[in-house]
Design a protein that fits this description.
260 residues; alpha/beta; Adenine-specific Methyltransferase, domain 2; Rossmann fold; 2 domains; 6-stranded mixed β-sheet; two-stranded parallel sheet; 8 helices; 8 strands; globular
Length: 260
Amino acid sequence: MLCDRNEDLITFYTVLRDDPEGLIRALSRFKHDEELYYKVRAQEPERLKPVARAARFSFLNRTCFNGLWRVNKKGLFNVPFGRYKNPKICDADALRRASLALAQTELTVGDFQTATHKARPGDFVYLDPPYVPLSKSAAFTAYASGGFTRVDQDRLRDELVRLRARGVYAMLSNADTPETRELYGDFCAFEVRAPRAINARGSGRGDANELLVVTWGEPGVHRYGVEGGPPSSVRVREEAPAAPIQTLNVAEPAKKRSRR
């Protein structure tokens, strides 16, 4: 099951799962053009048919600044045109493979609790919320209308407490800040380095510290692997000192993770 508050994203995944060839045909009509970009951006997605709405989402995400998805207070996408030489707007083979991967997936629009209330003991849940900002200027909570406030961060922590009590294996990622460490001080957590490519200044891009919080293992205690939980591909460095939050060594850093 995949659940997200962004209705455009879930519409895209649904069309990709159910009608990949229709989506490919729709995307093939687009070209990398600034005037076209702003014309498409001005469309009201709610008035479009599902295939057209999904194609709009993918086109904007592929050609906007830094692949960033951001909306204003009215819920309207407002990211400017990206300066790319030749972005691949329609990768038909990749779309077909993704469609097959989604074939048996339930897709839902909703808050994180829409998904977590269905979790049973032994299930695995991954939560990727808008991060606690590293600074006031770094705040990014406009992924969906309404934002994601400190109250929402507290609700999410409380939900993680409930999932742990129900025997659900849950993992949550967030920025590594004093606020986040305080929020999840009663959980087992790991510090990881993750690439960051979304920044107005090129010099501001690079690796940043994140926290991975899990519902299994002793709070603040972590040896090789995560005891009591499902197998993990993330291993602790041998040289990492014993500390409430230790450092993980990720073998192959993933490409820049955006909220696409």
